[in-house]
Amino acid sequence: MAERAPVSTEDTLVRYDNPVLVTKQPEKISSPPTGALAQPCIPTEAKRETEEILNAILPPKEWEEDGQIWTQKISSTPATRLDVINLQEMLDTRLQQRQARETGICPVRRQLYTQCFDELIRQVTINCGERGLLLLRVRDEARITMEAYQTLYCSSIAFGMRKALQSEQGKSDLMDQVAKLEAERSALEKQCTELKQKTEQLERRAAELRAAEEKRHQEELLALKKTNAQLKAQLEGIIAPKK
Prior knowledge:
The chain is mainly α. The chain is about 70% helix and about 5% strand. The chain is built from four helices and three strands. The protein has a three-stranded antiparallel beta sheet, with no helix packed on it. Helix 1 packs parallel to helix 4 (about 130-240). The protein is rod-shaped, with a radius of gyration of 54 Å.
């Protein structure tokens, strides 16, 4: 049997009976006289049924200590108005002592309110077992809903982390792409500058060649004009004596 820690009234808001030592060989109960008939006791049967319902709702705690097995059952003592007031005060005190958060997900606050709800179920079950079973269904449904919300919350956190990592990875890829494009732009700007310089050099060389060609053309033209003038003069000198 697995060992379970004993339940102390100082550790839980649920009221338990005193621990009881479980004997492996129960003592023999003396049988009633033969002629005596067992008379049914209605209050005892009702109490036994209530205890069975309480044990089904809040199972007894069992633990082993020094080779002996102890058990501690839920209390079947009805609660008074003062007990309910004390329960509220104990809940507020435990919340302050354990510094439970007022908002958000807080395991401490959830544990204390669960214990308080279990104690309320115990109190209601003693007066009406069916009402206690109905409250048990409400407790289980609330627990399932809370676990579903926690699972959804953890899934949303994991999804957010994945998206954050993907965005970081995408950002690094974009930064690499930007750096690559910047390098390409710098190379193209450098190539453009070199082409501009070559174009200016070609334009200067073309202008110089054009100027030299025009100068040579002018010199040839002047030389031809001078030769033409000389030829005209010689022709006029030859023609003039004949007249």
